[in-house]
Structures are given as structure tokens and as C-alpha cells.
Amino acid sequence: MPCMFFNHGGGPMPVMGKQPEVAAFLKSYGEKFQDAPPKAIVLVSAHWEEDEVVKVAGSVEHDLFFDYYGFPAETYDYEYPAPGEPSVAAEVVRLLKEANIKVEMDNERGWDHGVFVPMLCMFPEAKIPVVPISVLKNQDASQHLAMGMALRSLRDQGVLILGSGASFHNFGFFRAATAEEQEAGAVHSEKWAAWLTETMTSPKLTNEERLAALKNWEQAPSALACQPPNQAEHLMPMFVIAGAALGEAGVSIGGKTEADETNPDMASKWAGVNRLIMNQFEFLK
């Protein structure tokens, strides 16, 4: 199975029809698996942060955790009844422990919107088991790469590993009101996206060079403008996915922007968004 890092959009907006570009990509990606669906999905969510111990959702049944605010009432009534898969969760725990990564099963936490929103778009039938896992609050790229490397063998067992986050996540630029602020955000976005694309996809880099560059991502052009210090949780799933590819080159996939420029609702409320690049990467090896 491949592994893939994607932009999950803003809150429930992809499901609401407010981010049609995001929703269309997620839908099309899920359709790739119609003839050969994964036996389970391990999904790393940027919206599940833990202090020192990686948490793995281990129960069959679950609630949804509506961890967004200020949206219409109907967005708090969504359902996504796909089961969990305890056997896969147990294998995740075993693999992480073997790699000396602190990990625990969590059978209580509901599935946050970093899980159920993209799954509603990608696999709306809700038949494929999903095992959400957390990221760490320390936002250490090396540790998240190590998590992915430990989980690599799951791909050979028919498990699809997904990273749900955003390559650009600075609300100051999302909500930029002036032309100057929007231009600054766009310039930072272009520099950062160019570095990310080169680093994640270039066949000229060895696996070791790629992993080394990712460990030092904060030194990349405009990195800290696009993912501010101590606010880079949305980037952590990308490192897990790169680790699950063992540093192999990936490919850029899908649309790159957060929203359609033609979407008047997004354009009025989030004026800076439409010029910001959202990178997504898939790894086939």
C-alpha cells in the first residue's frame, strides 16, 4: 500500500461544500482503492497531540470528537461509523515499542475532525476500519520520522497509512486583511513549498539526505513563517509519512490550494488563503 500526507481542510468545511477543491481531491483519492481497498487505515491526525507517549485508538466502536467551534449546528451531527481495528492497533503498538518509542493504547478518545472529515470525503461508505494515532507535542521531526519508519511494514500487510494535516498552517496569513500581508504570506508560501517539493520528491537526493533535510526543516526558507515555532503540529503527520517511506522520493499529488479562488464565502472570511500553497505527497515505495 502507498502512504500519503494530505491537507484535511478547515474544520468541517470540506464536508459542508465550503472547500470543494479539498473535498474533490479526497474523494478522488479514495476512489483509487475501489477495486483493491486497504484492509485498514492507520491515520495520523494533527489534531491529536500527546505529551510524551504516542496514543493509538484501539477500540472497535468510537464517538466523534467535534473539536471545532462556531460552525452550523448540523456539522455537530455528522456520523462516521467505520469500525476501529484492535488487531491493527495492537500491531502499531508492538512496532512502536520495538523501536523504543513510548506508546499506549487509548480506547476512550473520540475520532477528531482530522480523522472523520477526510474519511467522510475519502471513504464515505465507512466500511474500512480506521486506527487513528496521535502526534507528539514536542513537534520533533526526528521522533515523528522514527514513528513512520517503525510502521513501514504495515504497508506490506495491506494497511494504508495516511497523514492528516497541512503543510502551511499560520492563521495570521490565513486571515491576512491587507494586500501587503497577503503578499507576504504568498511569498513565504512559495519559498517553503518549493523547498518541501524538492526535498520530498527529488530523485537526486539519497534516502539519507532526504531524511536529514527533513530533520532540519526549521532551517528551510520561510519554514517558520509557514509553520510557526511550537505551532507546527499540522506538519508532524508529514514526517510520519516520510518515515513510513523510509526516505524514498515521493510525488506531489492533488490540488495545492486550501480553497477555490471562486468560492466567495472563503474569499471574504479568509482573504489570505487562496494564494497559499498546500503541498500533498504520496509515496509508492
Distance, first to last CA: 9 Å
Gyration radius (Cα, Å) is 18 Å
Describe the global form.
globular
Helix content: 25-40%
Strand content: 15-25%
Strands of the largest sheet, in order across it? 5-2-6-1-8-7
Uncertain spans, ≥5 residues at pLDDT below 50?
258-263
H/E series: EHHEEHEHEHEHHHHHEHE
Largest sheet: 6 strands, mixed
- Please tell me the overall pLDDT: 93
Query: If helices are DSSP runs of H or I spanning 4 or more residues, what is the number of helices?
Result: 11
Label the structural class: alpha/beta
Give the strand tally: 8
Could you give a short description of this structure?
With 285 residues, the protein is an alpha/beta fold. 37% of the residues lie in helices and 15% in strands. Strand 3 (54-57), helix 3 (86-98) and strand 4 form a beta-alpha-beta unit.
List its traits.
alpha/beta; 37% helix; 285 residues; 15% strand; two-stranded parallel ribbon
Secondary structure layout plus pairing:
Layout: E1 3-7, H1 13-16, H2 20-31, E2 40-50, E3 54-57, H3 86-98, E4 103-106, H4 113-122, E5 130-136, H5 141-151, E6 159-165, H6 171-174, H7 179-201, H8 207-215, H9 223-226, H10 236-244, E7 251-252, H11 264-269, E8 281-283
Parallel strand pairs: 1-6, 2-5, 2-6, 3-4
Antiparallel strand pairs: 1-8, 7-8
Could you describe the 3D structure shown?
- With 285 residues, this protein is of the alpha/beta class.
- Helices cover 37% and strands 15% of the residues.
- The protein is built from eleven helices and eight strands.
- It has helices at residues 13-16, 20-31, 86-98, 113-122, 141-151, 171-174, 179-201, 207-215, 223-226, 236-244, 264-269, and strands at 3-7, 40-50, 54-57, 103-106, 130-136, 159-165, 251-252, 281-283.
- The strands form two sheets. The protein has a six-stranded mixed sheet, with helices on both faces. Strands 3-4 form a two-stranded parallel ribbon.
- Strand 3 (54-57), helix 3 and strand 4 form a beta-alpha-beta unit.
- Helix 2 packs across helix 4 (113-122) and helix 5 (141-151) packs parallel to helix 10 (236-244).
- The chain is globular.
- The chain starts with a strand and ends with a strand.
- Mean pLDDT is 93; it is low at 258-263.
